[in-house]
Design goal:
Layout (H helix, E strand, L loop, with lengths): L2 H7 L5 E6 L2 H18 L3 E5 L4 H10 L4 H6 L3 E5 H8 E2 L2 E2 L1 H18 L5 E5 L1 H7 L3 H16 L3 E8 L5 H13 L3 E3 L4 H16 L1 H14 L7 H12 L1 H17 L2
Parallel strand pairs: 1-7, 1-8, 2-3, 2-6, 6-7
Antiparallel strand pairs: 4-5
Helix pairs in contact: 1-2, 2-3, 7-8, 9-12, 10-11, 10-12, 10-13, 12-13
Length: 259
């Protein structure tokens, strides 16, 4: 399933992630995700970080939605990510029991009002943990979301502000984040990423070595919804970090230049 197909269709239990560097990229995805839902009569729950809610409201307004009217109808619920996260954290780890009491109950309340519809949830609580360096807690929260989605008619979109052209990101944060998602989206434009990675790989290691690398990644990395360019970057970063640094640097420049 393509990224645009997910944003439009949002199948129940789907768990997607948008990795972004600019808030406008995230707002565009959130706007598309929510807009498609409202057109289908689906309710939405938005758990937004401070300062981001206004960008999402503006995006919905740009798409012709009256945010206040949506909230009055119960179709749109906004929650503060920091406050919501604090309500179920137990020290440095999220409490599964309290997560169900707070987030699970919220989803169930919305579901009772719209029993035949799919709830479209967006959350940034995992990114708050990630920004604090609490990667294990962020992944634990992703798993709690997956458990909640398994028993509810709900699709989830998460957002992470990460630099995909950073070696540490490719070796530490991204592999676990991508593992917990059904629909990972590592950059705003995956086609542009594929071109940037291919051109840089060819320049750095040559055409023959690039072809062999693609073949090896295809053999060792199961085919999933993860874009192949991202799979190549993660594999290269893990197995050939020196080469990966050069490829990431060159791909960053090419990706930006082609915007």
């Amino acid at each position: 399933m393509s990224w645009s197909t997910f944003l439009e269709g949002a199948p129940p239990s789907a768990h997607a992630v948008q990795v972004y560097s600019e808030l406008s990229e995230l707002a565009a995805s959130v706007g598309s995700f929510l807009d498609a839902g409202f057109r289908a009569g689906d309710p939405a729950v938005v758990i937004a970080a401070a300062g981001h809610a206004q960008a999402f409201r503006a995006e919905l307004d740009r798409r012709g939605h009256d945010v206040e009217e949506l909230q009055a109808q119960g179709l749109l619920t906004f929650c503060d990510a920091e406050d919501t996260l604090a309500s179920f954290m137990d020290g440095n780890v999220p409490s599964g029991e309290r997560f169900e009491e707070i987030v699970g109950s919220l989803l169930d309340e919305v579901a009772r009002r719209f029993p035949e519809q799919t709830i479209r949830a967006f959350g940034e609580m995992v990114d708050l943990l990630s920004q604090r360096g609490q990667q294990a807690a962020a992944i634990a929260l992703e798993e709690l979301w997956n458990r909640a989605l398994a028993s509810r008619r709900c699709a989830l979109l998460c957002g992470y502000e990460l630099d995909v052209f950073d070696l540490d990101t490719q070796t530490s944060a991204l592999p676990e984040i991508m593992r917990t998602q059904t629909h990972p989206h590592p950059v705003a434009d995956t086609a542009r990423l594929a071109t940037a990675v291919h051109q840089t790989l060819t320049e750095v290691v040559g055409s023959d070595a690039t072809a062999k690398l693609y073949l090896r990644v295809a053999e060792e990395v199961p085919r999933t919804a993860l874009p192949r360019a991202q799979a190549v970057l993660m594999w290269l970063s893990r197995h050939q970090p020196t080469t990966a640094r050069r490829v990431l640097q060159g791909a960053r420049t090419r990706y930006a230049a082609a915007a």
